[in-house]
Specification:
The complex is a heterodimer of chains A (260) and B (245). Chain A is an all-alpha fold. Chain A has one domain: MetI-like fold. Chain A is 86% helix and 0% strand. Chain A is built from eleven helices and no strands. In chain A, helix 4 packs across helix 9 and helix 6 packs across helix 9. The longest helix of chain A has 39 residues. Chain A is globular. The mean pLDDT of chain A is 90. By secondary structure, chain B is of the alpha/beta class. Chain B has two domains: 152 residues, P-loop containing nucleotide triphosphate hydrolases (Rossmann fold, 3-Layer(aba) Sandwich); 78 residues, no CATH class. In chain B, 35% of the residues lie in helices and 25% in strands. In chain B, the strands form two sheets. A six-stranded mixed beta sheet of chain B has the order 5-6-7-3-8-9, with helices on both faces. A three-stranded antiparallel beta sheet of chain B has the order 2-1-4, with helices on one face. In chain B, helix 7 packs across helix 8. The longest helix of chain B has 16 residues. The chains are: A mainly alpha (260), B alpha/beta (245).
Chain lengths: 260, 245
C-alpha cells in the first residue's frame, strides 16, 4: 500500500522527466514527414494524413471491436503464460534436477520460430482465437519461465545463511529475503514477455484469423491502403509505449530503487 | 549456567575431513577465539556452533538463551535501508515494528551512523558503514552469545579500534559472551580470554592460550608483547608455517 502511494507520489516528477523522450518522438515524426516529401503518399503517407486516418478509425465502432478482440487475445495469452511461466519457473528453480531438465525444453521453445508455431496451431486449432492465444502463450512463456528460474537459481547463499543465523520465521524469509530478489528477475521478464505477446498477437492474427487488428492490417495491405496500415502500426506502437512507459516503468523504478 | 560445549566433533565435506576431534567449552561472560591459517576449517567450526550447518558426528550443546552472528562480509539485504536491516533480528524475535525501529535507530547512532544514513540502501553505504550496520544488526538483539567470523578483517585501523572498543566495554561489563574466529593473532590477544589454535588438514586444536588481564587493561604494549611471545611458540610456528629467520 505504502509502495503504491509512493509510485503515485513520484509519478508527476517521472512524467516531467519525459520531455526528452517527447522531443525524440517529434524529431522522428519530422524525419517521417521528410520521407513522405521524397517518396510520395502511396509509399509513405504523411504523419498528418496518418493521424487523420487514425482519428477516423478510433471513432469507428468496427475498429474498436477489432482492437478489443486483439486485446482480449493478447491478455488471455499473456495472462496464462505469466501465471504458468512464473509458477513453473519458480518450481524449476527450487529443484536442481528440474532446472537441468527444463533447459533443453526452453531452448526448443525459444529457438523455434513463432511462424512455425502459427502453422502448427492453424493445423491443430483451425482459424480462430485458440490459434492466436496458443501462439502468444508459446512465444511469451519461455521468457517468463527463464526469468523466474533465474530468479530462484541465483538466490544468494550468503543471505540465506544470514537469515538462518537470525532464525527468521518462514514468512520473513520469504517476503524479506527471497521475494525481493526473485521479483527483481521476474518483473523484467514479465515486461519483455508482454512486449513479445503484443508483437506475436498481431502476427498470428494477420496470418490465421479474419478479426482483430492483425487482420485489419492484412486487409489494408491487400487494398494498398497505406494510411490505414500506418495508422494501425501507430496504434500498436502507441499502446505498447503507453503500457511500457506510463504503467510499467514507474513501477520498475520503485522496485529497483535499491539496485546500483 | 549458560554454556556452549563442543565434544568430539568431527566434520567432513564428501571425502575431505575438515574437522577432527574438536573439544572445547565456552562459559557465560567468556570470550573464546579460534585462530589458525585460512582454509583450516575455522568457518565450518563456527557455522556448526551457530547451528547454520548440521552436526554430523559429535555433540554441540548450546544453552545460551540467545545468539547472533556477524559475518566477515556485511551480508545486508540490498533491498532494505539501514534501519530495516538493523531491525531484522528484532522483528524475527517478534518485537513490534515501532519499537524495533526505535531500538535500531538508537544503536545506529551509537555505532557512528548518522540520521542521513537511516534511509540509505546498502549500495549507498561505504564498506566500513556496511560493517557497522552488520554489527549493529547483530548486537541490537542483545545476544548473550555472539558469533564473529573475522569481522574486522576488511576494516581500516580506526574503525577496527572503534568496534573493538564497543565490544570490550560489553565484555568487561559481562554483558556478552563471544566465540570468534580470526587469522589475526593480535586481534585474538586483544579480545579473548581463551585462544585456541586450530591446525589445518584436518582441522584440530593443537594448543590453548589463556590471557588473564582484563580486556580494558590490555594496552598496545601488552598486546605487542604477548604477540611477540606467542610468535616464538613452536606450535604457532608450525601451524602458520612461519619461516624462522
Amino acid at each position: 500500500m505504502k509502495f503504491a502511494l509512493k509510485i503515485i507520489k513520484d509519478f508527476p516528477a517521472y512524467l516531467w522527466s519525459g520531455w526528452g523522450a517527447i522531443a525524440t518522438i517529434l524529431l522522428f515524426i519530422a524525419f517521417w514527414d521528410m520521407g513522405n516529401q521524397i517518396y510520395g503518399d502511396l509509399v509513405l503517407p504523411s504523419p498528418l494524413e496518418t493521424f487523420k486516418t487514425l482519428n477516423l478509425m478510433l471513432h469507428d465502432k468496427n475498429i474498436i471491436t477489432e482492437i478489443q478482440t486483439t486485446l482480449y487475445r493478447a491478455s488471455i495469452g499473456f495472462g496464462l503464460s505469466l501465471l504458468i511461466g512464473t509458477i513453473l519457473g519458480l518450481l524449476a528453480g527450487f529443484f536442481a534436477t528440474a532446472s537441468m531438465m527444463s533447459r533443453p525444453i526452453v531452448t526448443i521453445l525459444v529457438g523455434m520460430p513463432p511462424i512455425a508455431w502459427i502453422v502448427l496451431a492453424m493445423i491443430w486449432f483451425g482459424m480462430g482465437d485458440e490459434t492466436v492465444i496458443f501462439t502468444v502463450i508459446v512465444a511469451s512463456f519461455p521468457i517468463i519461465f527463464v526469468g523466474a528460474l533465474q530468479g530462484t537459481r541465483t538466490l544468494d547463499g550468503d543471505l540465506k545463511e544470514m537469515a538462518e543465523s537470525f532464525k527468521l520465521p518462514w514468512h520473513m524469509k520469504f517476503f524479506d529475503v527471497y521475494f525481493p530478489h526473485i521479483f527483481s528477475y521476474v518483473f523484467p521478464a514479465w515486461v519483455s514477455g508482454l512486449g513479445m505477446a503484443w508483437k506475436i498477437v498481431i502476427m498470428a492474427e494477420l496470418l490465421a484469423t479474419s478479426t482483430g487488428i492483425g487482420a485489419s492490417l492484412s486487409i489494408a495491405r491487400s487494398q494498398l491502403d497505406t494510411p490505414t496500415a500506418l495508422a494501425i502500426v501507430v496504434i500498436m506502437i502507441g499502446s505498447l509505449m503507453f503500457i511500457e512507459y506510463i504503467i510499467l516503468e514507474p513501477i520498475k523504478r520503485e522496485v529497483e530503487l535499491w539496485r546500483d | 549456567m549458560e554454556r556452549l560445549e563442543v565434544k568430539k566433533l568431527n566434520h567432513r565435506f564428501g571425502f575431505t575431513e575438515i574437522l577432527k576431534n574438536i573439544n572445547f567449552s565456552l562459559n557465560k561472560g567468556e570470550v573464546l577465539s579460534i585462530v589458525g591459517p585460512s582454509g583450516g576449517g575455522k568457518t565450518t567450526l563456527l557455522h556448526l556452533c551457530a547451528n547454520i550447518l548440521d552436526v554430523q558426528e559429535g555433540n554441540i550443546t548450546n544453552t545460551f538463551t540467545s545468539s547472533a552472528f556477524a559475518f566477515q562480509e556485511a551480508r545486508l539485504l540490498p533491498w532494505k535501508n539501514t534501519i530495516d536491516n538493523i531491525s531484522l533480528g528484532l522483528l524475527a524475535k517478534g518485537e513490534n515494528r515501532s519499537q524495533s525501529i526505535q531500538k535500531a535507530q538508537e544503536i545506529a547512532l551509537k555505532f557512528g551512523l548518522t540520521e542521513d544514513d537511516f534511509e540509505k540502501f546498502p549500495k549507498d553505504l561505504s564498506g566500513g558503514m556496511k560493517q557497522r550496520v552488520s554489527f549493529a544488526r547483530a548486537l541490537v538483539v542483545k545476544p548473550s552469545l555472539l558469533f564473529l567470523d573475522e569481522p574486522f578483517s576488511a576494516l581500516d585501523i580506526g574503525l577496527k579500534k572503534e568496534l573493538q572498543a564497543i565490544l570490550i566495554e560489553m565484555i568487561v561489563n559481562k554483558e556478552i559472551s563471544i566465540l570468534f574466529i580470526t587469522h589475526d593473532l593480535m586481534e585474538a590477544i586483544r579480545l579473548s580470554d581463551v585462544m585456541l589454535l586450530l591446525k589445518a588438514d584436518p582441522g584440530h586444536i593443537v594448543k590453548e592460550f589463556r590471557f588473564d588481564v582484563a580486556q580494558d587493561k590490555r594496552d598496545d604494549r601488552y598486546v605487542y608483547g604477548k604477540s611477540a611471545e606467542i610468535l616464538q611458540d613452536e606450535e604457532i610456528i608450525n601451524t602458520f608455517e612461519l619461516e624462522l629467520k
